[in-house]
Amino acid sequence: EWTEPLFQLIKEPPNKESHMAEEKSNVVLIGMPGAGKSTLGIVLAKIMALKFVDADLVIQGQMDKTLQTIIDAMGPDGFIQVENEILSDLEAEETVIATGGSAIYSDEAMKHLSDIGVIVYLEISYDSLKGRLGDLQERGVVLKGGMGMSLRELYDERKPLYEKYADIVVNVDDLNITAAARKVACALDHCEALAY
Q1: What local confidence, expressed as pLDDT, does residue 16 receive?
Q2: How many other β-carbons are positioned within 10 Å of the β-carbon of residue 121?
Q3: Distance of alpha carbon 107 from the chain centroid
Q4: Which of 37, 112, 158, 170 could lock 98 by a disulfide, CB 3.0 to 4.6 Å apart?
Q5: Which residue has the higher pLDDT, 22 or 191?
Q6: What are phi and psi of 168, to 5 degrees?
Q7: Sign of torsion, CA 152 155 156 158?
Q8: Edge-first strand listing for the sheet containing 117-123
Q9: Sign of CA dihedral 8, 13, 17, 20
Q10: d(CA 179, CA 158)
Q11: What percent of the chain has pLDDT over 90?
Q12: Which residues are CB-neighbours of 93 under 8 A, at least 6 positions away?
């Protein structure tokens, strides 16, 4: 016979407010090329007293080639495979991890990153993106649809994938890097770390 009140038997839902769970000491930034993942990531790491890793630089370092050289040599699918392998093995603690824009094509890598960190999607509108991005080919952008793929097609293809993997979505339209980093810090319940 149960003697405890019913409300004590009902398991409390996890606290959705505290995004920085202890076992997830990392912050993983995802988003379109030009959304500011790398530059914002450095500022965010300073605000939150975390380390910083740029996944694209890890890939370049392990492959000893630029991203564009890897894409040219292996094609988009080959690059995605390399990115998947490297990101799936990435180990970090108390680190802001800026991923490449194509990380979301690698389900295994995204599951691993989700296991070790809070995934933050830096959302940017298509119009803002168009204003920020230069030549896609020069940036080492993975165009799954081939070189003729337009920025609009790339945006429309990737946006649902970013939304699928995100724990938190932070819109960074019309914000400078510092303001955007502060907005992300607040979304991660670290507003108190901000020195205004």
Answers
A1: 39
A2: 25
A3: 13
A4: 37
A5: 191
A6: -135, 140
A7: positive
A8: 51-54, 95-98, 26-30, 117-123, 168-171
A9: positive
A10: 25
A11: 63
A12: 25, 26
The single residue listed with the structure tokens 């965010």 is: 44
Residue 60: band (very low, low, confident or very high) from pLDDT cuts 50, 70, 90: very high
Both tokens assigned to 19:
């995004």
pTM: 0.83
Cα separation, 190 vs 20, whole angstroms: 9
How many angstroms separate the first and last alpha carbons of the chain? 56
Question: Residues, the chain, total?
Answer: 196
- Residue indicated by tokens 């990737």: 158
Distance of alpha carbon 192 from alpha carbon 186, whole angstroms: 8
Structure tokens at 107: 């389900």
**What are the tokens at 76?**
């988009």
Quick one: which of 177, 181, 33, 185 has its CA closest to 104?
33
3-state DSSP of the chain:
CCCCCHHHHCCCCCCCCCCCCCCCCEEEEECCCCCCHHHHHHHHHHHHCCEEEEHHHHHHHHHCCCHHHHHHHHHHHHHHHHHHHHHHCCCCCCEEEECCCCHHHCHHHHHHHHHHEEEEEEECCHHHHHHHCCCCCCCCCCCCCCCCCCHHHHHHHHHHHHHHHCCEEEECCCCCHHHHHHHHHHHCCCHHHCCC
